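task queued by scheduler; priority normal; single chain, no ligands, no partner chains; default sampling; output format set to structure tokens
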Amino acid sequence: QVQLVESGGGLVQAGGSLRLSCAASGRTLGTMIMGWFRQGPGKEREFVTATSVNGRNTYYADSVKGRFTISRDNAKNTVYLQMNNLKPEDTAVYYCAADLNPFHQLGSFRSDFWGQGTQVTVSS
């Protein structure tokens, strides 16, 4: 069983930045592809980004490319999402997710475990 706990959400003005963290336990982080998803008000959950087990490869949704950066510190069992130039449409609950198959293509990320989510609100 993998436990994922997100933190770092909050209220920020448009153009601002936030960094989310996801602490993983129950399994060595370096064996899992990790990703972030989000669900805005009245919307379905959508993929944001994913990173390979060693962090060398990343994949982003077009809507966040160039503004968001995913990274991981396997020694600390933590994954990060740096979000810059935030827009009101980025307002959502952000979820950390783990894919236990390290051979999946990042664009075909399939979550086996989810965190509880952290709220990000961007005001205009």
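post-processing summary
- The CA atoms of residues 33 and 104 lie 8 Å apart.
- The mean pLDDT is 96.
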